[in-house]
Specification:
single chain, alpha/beta, Glutaredoxin, five-stranded mixed beta sheet, globular
Length: 104
């Protein structure tokens, strides 16, 4: 499953109404750690069936970033049944990211 680009228009449908846990990757194109994390996120989107991975560009979706109180990026927010269940700010190597997601 590919990483889904999410914006303010499709966020509710793609994230809040998802029947799977959702990992939201808040990022920006100018962010070095975000660019380092992107290929890992893309790999995991193909490897993990139990979690949906979405990407939110904070420059284009500042209201979403504000609603999740994102002040530093990359910011990874894990959502289940529309509720935030965990959060990590900063780069994570693949093995630590899998631990963060919880092997879903």
């Amino acid at each position: 499953m590919a990483v889904t680009e999410v914006n303010e228009k499709n966020f509710e449908e793609q994230v809040l109404k998802s029947d799977k846990a959702v990992l939201i990757d808040f990022n920006a194109g100018w962010c070095g750690p975000c660019r380092m994390l992107k290929p890992i996120i893309e790999q995991l989107s193909d490897e993990l069936d139990g979690v949906k991975i979405v990407s939110v560009d904070i420059d284009e979706n500042d209201a979403l970033a504000d609603s999740y109180e994102v002040s530093s990026i990359p910011c990874l927010v894990l959502v289940q049944n529309g509720e935030e269940i965990d959060r990590h700010v900063g780069y994570l190597p693949k093995d630590r990211l899998i631990e963060f997601i919880g092997g879903r």
